[in-house]
TrEMBL record:
It comes from Pristionchus mayeri. It holds the Pfam family Laminin_N. Keywords: Disulfide bond, Glycoprotein, Laminin EGF-like domain, Repeat, Secreted, Signal. Disulfide bonds join C411-C423, C413-C430, C432-C441, C444-C458. CDD domains: EGF_Lam, NTR_netrin-1_like. InterPro entries: EGF, Laminin/Netrin_ECM, Laminin_N, LE_dom, LMN_ATRN_NET-like_EGF, Netrin_domain, Netrin_module_non-TIMP, TIMP-like_OB-fold. This is Netrin-1. Residues 1-16 form the signal peptide. PROSITE patterns: EGF_1, EGF_LAM_1, EGF_LAM_2, LAMININ_NTER, NTR. Gene3D superfamilies: 2.40.50.120, Galactose-binding domain-like, Laminin, Tie2 ligand-binding domain superfamily. GO terms for cellular component: axon; basement membrane; extracellular region.
Length: 609
């Protein structure tokens, strides 16, 4: 579409510059960056002549060093070619031919022309530098010449306001001699940003107009939106035209060939001749067709308070070219808008508890490219990447919305009864010390009374027949944890299990309930089954640590198939139970005892010990 529009402009030059300059600053009737439902859509500024009214700097202008004559040849109505001579003088407005004529309102009936100083110096480079003011995505560069077409000239572009320059086209009838380039090299995907050299301008049917379409013959032009290479290729802030030779006969005037050695030898020579007045460059119009570069996030360009041209950015973007997201809109990365997606920047979700956020690429990938914003400095006692949690020492007030300033309430855990200052984020329940209860751990549990200790603020109330603190007299020798295991003790038990203790809970009744995993069965009995099962220890045995059971350890458990206690179903630790910590020594003995037991070699006797 860019190419078709460019060709239309070139074929109808009358008032084209004026036409395309009308709309660059116009406020659109409706915002084209959003559809009727308010959804973001791609939008682009209107196609204009980006050069209109812009400053052009010439390295050389006729009359800058005093009045001088220059001559042109024209074909009259009778078909006779006649030479017409004029005088140029920069000090007299009606005789001046400044570079500003190149970007003013063009009138084909009375064209104003920039003219360079006539000279026979060879080689002699003359440049014209056009500043567009900001980045544009260009479609074409068109040059209307007032006199003879230059034989050799180079076109350059800059995307950084003139700091660096890149060639985008060379014109010459002798490409290799003038620019060291083979003529009319084919452009393929691997060299889409290569500047070609051609002599096609000498055969152009458009008279004295030479036009360069940026995307012509570029293979990726059909998929321009998906080609960062071509997007960079058409981007420019400045255009420079460098004239190197008016015609090949310039060298012949000196009796030289076009060899490089001859050119260098004559570099500083000047020949006076009556034909000097005919050797100058002259251009009437320099037009640059394109759009203000806004990356699909603006429908027009405006002037900011400093007088600099900038995009009128939408979609929560900002910058001269809408090249970045606005502050706090970092939930997904900035991207250029396409026909399929506007790629609008999205605000971070901080639930009104933060004013700043950042983008995290790893979180974005983990979310399936949906969200990557991380809130910074969450307020109102909130925490988390979206300020959706309460910070330690606070919990969520279920009666208030997540966006409320007081959504997080202080835990107020009792300094003596609680283990720390943090509580459950949902219920507000503090983590209490043993024997302590209450939301904030400020009461003794049933069966406990308050003590004066800050370490154990609540102690158990012992039954009448049980002392509060077990003594050596109340805790006889523990036979449930023998130092040695023999064949007789193994044979007198109905089951032998390898168990892994994974949890413990002390009930209000004083009983301990352990959660164990039966990993191996050496002797089955009626309770011999693998998997998770409860194991019970009565209060007195628990207080006397007989046997002493630690969570996380593995044990060999031997016991009798006593009647099942309905209140304490599972494995029961009693006076008939044996429990030893599992190690390689115990494992060897158990395997040996188990083999003898299965072989019927167990000793007899009523003594369990």
């Amino acid at each position: 579409m860019f190419l078709l529009l460019a060709l239309a402009v070139i074929s109808r030059p009358i008032a084209a510059a004026y036409y395309f300059s009308q709309f660059s600053m116009r406020q659109p009737d409706h915002d084209p960056c959003y559809d009727n439902s308010g959804r973001s859509v791609r939008c682009v500024p209107e196609f204009i002549n980006a050069a209109f009214g812009k400053p052009v700097v010439a390295s050389d202008t006729c009359g800058m060093r005093g009045a001088i004559k220059f001559c042109t040849t024209r074909e009259g109505s009778d078909g006779v070619i006649r030479e017409e001579c004029s005088t140029c003088d920069a000090d007299q407005s009606h005789l001046s031919h400044p570079a500003s004529f190149l970007t003013d309102l063009n009138n084909p009936q009375n064209m104003t022309c920039w003219v360079s100083e006539p000279s026979l110096t060879y080689p002699r480079n003359v440049s014209l530098t056009l500043s567009l003011g900001k980045k544009f995505e260009l479609t074409y560069v068109s040059m209307q010449f007032c006199n003879r077409l230059p034989d050799s000239m180079a076109l350059y572009k800059s995307a950084d306001h003139g700091r660096t320059w890149t060639p985008f086209q060379f014109y010459s009838t002798q490409c290799e001699q003038m620019y060291g380039k083979r003529p009319d090299v084919k452009i393929e995907k691997h060299n889409e940003q290569e500047a070609r050299c051609t002599s096609s301008h000498t055969l152009a049917p458009a008279g004295n107009r030479v036009a360069f379409p940026f995307l012509e013959d570029r293979p990726s032009a059909i998929s321009f939106e998906q080609s960062p290479v071509l997007q960079d290729w058409v981007t420019a802030t400045d255009i420079r035209v460098v004239f190197s030779r008016l015609s090949p006969d310039q060298a012949e005037l000196y009796g030289l060939t076009n060899d490089v050695d001859d050119v260098l030898e004559a570099a500083n020579s000047t020949v006076e001749s009556d034909g000097k007045e005919r050797y100058f460059y002259s251009m009437g119009e320099l037009a640059v067709g394109g759009r203000c570069k806004c990356n699909g996030h603006a429908a027009r360009c405006i002037y900011d308070k400093n007088g600099q041209m900038t995009c009128d950015c939408k979609h929560n973007t900002m910058g001269t070219d809408c090249e970045r997201c606005k502050p706090f809109h970092y939930d997904r990365p900035w991207a250029r808008a396409t026909a399929h997606s506007a790629n609008a920047c999205v605000a971070c979700n901080c639930n009104l508890h933060a004013k700043r956020c950042r983008f995290d690429s790893e979180l974005y990938k983990m979310s399936g490219d949906r969200s990557g914003g991380v809130c910074i400095n969450c307020r109102h006692n909130t925490a988390g990447r979206n300020c959706h949690l309460c910070k330690p020492g606070f919990f969520r007030d279920p009666t208030k919305p997540l966006t409320h300033r007081k959504v997080c309430k202080e835990c107020n855990c009792h300094p003596v009864g609680s283990i720390g200052s943090s509580c459950n984020q949902t219920s507000g329940q503090c983590l209490c010390k043993p024997g302590v209860t209450g939301i904030i751990c400020n009461k003794c549990a049933k069966g406990f009374i308050q003590s004066r200790s800050t370490t154990t603020p609540c102690i158990r109330v012992a039954p009448l027949d049980e002392p509060v603190t077990p003594t050596a007299r109340s805790c006889p020798k523990c036979r449930s944890s023998p130092k040695r295991l023999n064949q007789k003790k193994f044979c007198k038990r109905d089951y032998a299990l390898q168990v892994h203790v994974v949890g413990r809970e002390i009930l209000d009744s004083g009983w301990a309930r352990y959660t164990v995993i039966v990993e191996s069965i050496m002797k089955k009995g009626i309770r011999g089954r693998r998997g998770q099962i409860d194991m019970w220890q009565e209060p007195h045995a628990l207080s006397c640590k007989c046997p002493r059971v630690k969570v996380g350890r593995r044990y060999l458990l031997l016991g009798k198939d006593d009647p099942v206690d309905r209140e304490h179903p599972g494995l029961l630790l009693n006076a008939k139970s044996l429990m030893l910590e599992w190690d390689e020594d115990v494992m060897d003995k158990v395997l040996r005892f188990s083999q003898r037991d299965r072989a019927g070699l167990c000793p007899t006797g009523d003594d369990l010990y």
